[in-house]
UniProtKB/TrEMBL annotation:
Xref: InterPro entries: DUF6596, RNA_pol_sigma-70_dom, RNA_pol_sigma70_r2, RNA_pol_sigma70_r4_t2, RNA_pol_sigma_r2, RNA_pol_sigma_r3/r4-like, WH-like_DNA-bd_sf
RNA polymerase sigma-70 region domain span: 20-78
Domain DUF6596: from-to ranges: 188-288
PANTHER family, per the entry: BLL0085 PROTEIN, BLL6612 PROTEIN-RELATED
Domain spans labelled RNA polymerase sigma factor 70 region 4 type: 121-170
Designated name of the protein: RNA polymerase sigma factor
Length: 426
């Protein structure tokens, strides 16, 4: 096999198998950091051998066997070092045989449980949200520190430090590699879904840079969401989050024009929406409802997205139902961003004046002080009410707050149109 072809195949195998490999090793050695080191050792050996020998028929099993042997070698070296001043005899051999048998027995447990343990470990509440995101993308997404850094537009050294500190924190705290139980499980699944939701949102609407979207992050979030839903089949919120992400992601091709600038929802060419992704979202939502999850915030957001997806044309959108759903969402998961979305829905259902009344109650909200969509929405509603000068000021302020160049150009265009007295871009 040519070296470039082999490396391309190895990269594909690593993306597919690294999470399972690290999960299995973490259960064996009880240390996520060490597990990743062992997995990387196996990858290095593969890079050395596979270009000459070809990719094995079962590359995942090959990597696991190689990493397991490395783990056993490390354990053996550790035992020898502990006993280096003692006579090495039958007792050490028996200890070594027992330890090896225990490690191999651990490797035979269910791989699905391993992955779920890894999810909960990477998203442990001991870690900051930035650290959880970086560690999750590293361990479960198989992304390199460079890829994570480029996705979030931060220095690679910053991401590397976050990952190193996260692994050290988990090791020093001796966080057990296990799935929590009872009430703790319910609390922690919310943290896990929150990390995946955050990754998806950054991919769907990049906070900075020259691109409106970062599709790779959306794809990783979807892959992780599907994995968690598969591993927790009775958790309606997991299926609700998958529904939301599938339906939102279905709009990807329609969200930007040929110039790369945003195309707002009412103006999108709905023939470009991915119907298969929408159908997967509908199926996930139905599964969440069947589990009694109608009162969950992710299920509710999935239902709102589904309401948009069912409208063949923008004018067919049932804005009254969407406004009611946002009102319910604001009750179950209070948030000024939810209230702002509700205001938009109310404006579409009941007129710009009704929406502006709600938006104006959010102007002094500290959490929205630097949120560019607040003045953007307010500018849109002011223009619809014929208050063009005020609208121009709001669009200009919104442009100054965003760090995404595509959104900034779009908002400045709207400000100029206000100055000319033309209709805003919707």
């Amino acid at each position: 096999m040519m070296t470039t072809d082999a490396h391309r195949a190895i990269d594909a195998v690593w993306r597919a198998e690294s999470a399972r490999l690290i999960a299995g090793l973490a259960r064996m050695v009880r240390d996520v950091g060490l597990a990743e080191e062992l997995a990387q050792d196996a990858l290095v050996i593969a890079l050395e051998k596979w270009p000459a020998t070809g990719v094995p028929d079962n590359p995942g099993a090959w990597l696991m066997a190689t990493a397991k042997h490395r783990a056993i070698d490390r354990l053996r070296r550790g035992k020898l070092q502990q006993r280096k001043h003692e006579e090495l005899g039958h007792e050490l051999e028996r200890e070594w045989a027992d330890a090896t048998a225990k490690l191999e027995a651990r490797m035979d447990d269910d791989i699905g449980d391993d992955l779920l343990r890894l999810v909960f470990t990477a998203c442990h509440p001991l870690l900051s949200m930035d650290a959880r995101v970086a560690l999750t993308l590293r361990l479960l997404g198989g992304l390199t520190t460079d890829e994570i850094a480029r996705a979030y537009l931060v220095a690679e050294s910053t991401v590397a430090q976050r990952i190193v500190r996260a692994k050290r924190t988990l090791s020093e705290a001796q966080v057990p590699f296990e799935v929590p139980r009872g009430e703790e499980l319910h609390e922690r699944i919310g943290a896990v879904l929150g990390v995946i939701y955050l990754i998806f949102n950054e991919g769907y609407s990049a906070t900075a840079g020259d691109d409106l979207m970062r599709p790779a992050l959306c794809e990783e979030a979807l892959r992780l969401g599907r994995l968690v839903a598969e591993l927790t089949p009775a958790e309606p919120e997991a299926h609700g989050l998958v529904a939301l992400m599938e339906i939102q992601a279905s709009r990807a091709r329609a969200r930007t024009g040929s110039d790369g600038k945003p195309v707002l929802l009412p103006d999108q060419d709905r023939s470009l929406w991915d119907r298969q992704s929408i159908e997967r979202g509908f199926a996930a939502l139905a599964r969440a409802y069947a589990l009694g999850g109608a009162a969950g915030p992710y299920v509710m957001q999935g239902a709102i997205a589904a309401c948009h997806a069912r409208a063949a044309k923008a004018e067919d959108t049932d804005w009254h139902t969407i406004a009611a759903m946002y009102a319910a969402l604001a009750q179950m998961a209070p948030s000024p961003v939810v209230q702002l979305n509700r205001a938009v829905a109310v404006s579409m259902a009941s007129g710009a004046a009704a929406g502006l009344e709600l938006v104006d109650t959010l102007v002094a909200e500290p959490a929205l002080a630097q949120y560019h969509l607040l003045p953007s929405v307010r500018g849109d509603l002011l223009f619809k009410l014929g208050r063009h000068r005020e609208a121009q000021a709001e669009f200009t302020r919104a442009a100054s707050l965003t760090r995404n160049s595509r959104e900034q150009d779009f908002l400045l265009d709207r400000a100029r149109l206000c100055e000319q007295g033309n209709a805003p871009l919707e």
